[in-house]
Amino acid sequence: MENGHNFQEVSNPKYDCLLFDIDDTLYPLNSGMSAHTARNIEEYMLQKLGMEAEKVPELCNSLYKTYGTTMAGLRAIGYDFDYDDFHSSVHGRLPYSLLKPDPVLKGILQSLPCRKLGFTNADTGHAIRVLKRLGLEDCFERIISFDTLNSSDDIRPPDDKNGEEIFDFCEYTRRPDSGMVLPKTPVICKPFDNAFEKAFKLADIDPQRTLFFDDSIRNLMTAKRLGLHTVAVGTSVRSTGVDHALESIHNIREAFPELWEADEKNEIVNYKVAIETTVKA
Ligand SMILES: [Mg+2]
Known about the structure:
Layout: H1 2-11, E1 17-20, H2 33-47, H3 56-67, H4 70-76, H5 83-90, H6 103-111, E2 115-119, H7 124-134, E3 142-144, H8 146-149, H9 169-174, H10 193-203, E4 210-214, H11 217-225, E5 229-233, E6 244-246, H12 252-255, H13 258-280
Parallel strand pairs: 1-2, 1-4, 2-3, 4-5, 5-6
Helix pairs in contact: 1-13, 3-4
Bound molecules: magnesium ion.
């Protein structure tokens, strides 16, 4: 009877996969990386897209809120630019030296007996540079990034935009009842359902058995609606859509001891089986 009980717990742990956002989740917000990213995006809008300086900060922020990322919004309203050029201008110039190796987090991740994946709106190159700086490059099965979600097959040339005017997003936000139709973006990114659904399919993730860690409440809200168990990182506040809140990613062990218990019980069962086999032999 006791063995039967053990077997049930070992074979059916609540979670078999951990899905992690990267920026401001695997390292703290006060690293300064976020502020540098925002500054680089604004510079790109100003210098490469030739936008008016006084409009840039507000537009950058409203496009981010509406389309998930500013880049997704810029493409939606009609700007034509190369994704790789955007990423190298925005992420390629970041001061990665702000990030320091995190051996404590590395120890936690390496000891976790379940799948671990990264899930970011940034490009793969940025994700790898961040993980290398943190010393976590060997801790994840795979990273689902902008490049994964927006494969070259999905990136269509802006052929239907040629000759069209840029959609006046400022006018749209000023006069929401004007009847202007908000254009769609070709970019797939969090916090939208299609990004999560694509990630589940590509990485064979069962949301019901997955813990999702992110610092963004809107990402967590979508995740919760789609069946993931959600963990807000960098806060102690459990708002709507948040199952758990961790002030620091370092608190995983205290918050979820059961993630390790499954493995410990497995070891005990294996040990028992080994002893019984030896005795019978
Ligand atoms: Mg983040």
